[in-house]
Amino acid sequence: MVKERTVPCTTEKRGIVLPVCLICEQTPPDGIAGGILVSGRFLCAACEDEIVHIRVGDSRYSHLKDKVKRIWARGE
Ligand SMILES: [Zn+2]
After folding, report:
1. What is the SS3 assignment for 51?
2. Cα(52) to centroid of ligand 1, in Å?
3. CB 50 within 8 A of CB 56
4. How far is the CA of 25 from the centre of ligand 1 (A)?
5. Residue 22 CA, ligand 1 centroid: distance in Å
6. N or C end of the chain: which has fewer CB within 10 A?
7. What CA–CA distance (Å, rounded) separates 66 from 71?
8. Tens digit of each residue's pLDDT (9 = 90 or more) over 60-74
9. Cα 28 from Cα 31, distance rounded (Å)
10. What is the pLDDT of residues 17-50, one digit of tens each?
11. Ligand 1 mean position to 27 CA, how many Å?
């Protein structure tokens, strides 16, 4: 067994690149089809939906905002 190095936005299993959501750090069951890629970062459909619908002042807003900022951050 070779220990895989952790890659920021994807994991690779059996040659298939599986995306890891930037927000919830989960891989959707559908893989890359279960979300969208934004600037090379992956967002699962559930988090995408949450971002689209969240309101300023919601308790999760600042948490989400911090995570979303990482989409635009380069060279982490
Ligand atoms: Zn997610």
Report:
1. helix
2. 13
3. no
4. 6
5. 6
6. N
7. 10
8. 999 999 988 887 776
9. 5
10. 789 999 999 999 988 899 999 888 899 999 999 9
11. 8
